[in-house]
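no rush on this but wanted to send it before i forget. what follows is a protein written twice so to speak, once as letters and once as structure tokens for the fold. mainly i need to know what kind of three dimensional shape the backbone takes. thanks a lot i owe you, the record is right below.
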Amino acid sequence: MRAPVAAAVTAAVLAASAMTTSPAQAQVQHPAAHPPLIPFPSQFQLDVMSKARKVGTSMPTGWWDKMSAKPDAWFASDEARAIGDNIISWQISETGGWPGGDVVTQPFRGEEGQIGWRGHSTSLYRFDQMRFLARVYAATGEERYRRSLDIGLSYVLDAQYPKGSWPYGSHPSVAAHNARYASFNDDAMVKAMIFVREIATDPIYAKVSAGRPAQAKAAFDRGVAYILRAQIVADGKLTAWGAQHDEVTYEPRMGRMFEPPAISANESAAVLLLLMGLDNPSPEVIRAVESGVAWYKASALKGVRIDRPANGDRVVVADPKARPIWARYYEIPTNRPIFAGRDGIVRYSLAPVELERRAGYAWYGDWGDAVIARYQDWAKARI
């Protein structure tokens, strides 16, 4: 059954458990207030992709998880030094960050432009590169690794906005009109905060620069404060978070044209898991967690599943035996699941969205499962 039929099925569920929501602390910005739709891919993207390295030069996903398990002595080896030198060669001098893609197997040779294999000109927080440099520096004590790492740490810490959030990265492309926003998208801010907490607590970073741990601790605390202020309020009740928020006003904001300002069940999961990982949570943190988990429980969609036919499409199907799932985006103020294509038009079912976006984006998921499971342990620990 196609999404319009499934929408009728889920409507009863939402009517029974829906929250009447309202924007957080200010009016939500309408897509019309953003720059005109940019064709996809843009000419800028085509230009940089034509110069990008091939996928084969990038490390596979999870490369650091495997390398981090190696003994300390290995990080003084010629192999580790070569990887460390490759990482240094890709560091972007203007920012101290690194390009998209984990290109660590080969050095930057200069002809590509520091764009990475995906064609990103974006300067990103490549935390695993910095973790690797930290281990190599600890094993060798060589100044070039310390210097590169310290520049990278400065980039991460200096990127934080005064009110405590982090943007996705440094985007020189004018096409990225949403680049300045506080970004929970792809767990960007949460990942930044996890790394900043490492800087504050791992002794190796004090050896890189004596003042870094205290600076990082203060930055982490500001990040938590921003998260608490940005939690979306609905009818006087706290709910969850959007994928992007205004870095000054805390309002949910639009990302790409198919990413409306809304409550996001995807991005909010990592935020809540981060908060539940805090030692000695404050009353404000406890309230935020309790409210966020309540929103997940109230917003679960029951009686539907997502099928993927042979043509790659995504189809919403009625199934009374299906496990609860969540839509990625919930409308403010109705808490109805919403969807959008590259035209930016918000729709209430998935079927009208063009195939490329319908099949190429995570519109539904089990994101609430991890939150609710972790909450059970978290709540017991507080009894």
Remarks:
- The CA atoms of residues 133 and 145 lie 6 Å apart.
- Confidence is low (pLDDT under 50) at residues 1-42, 44-56, 116-121, 171-175.
- The two ends are 45 Å apart (CA to CA).
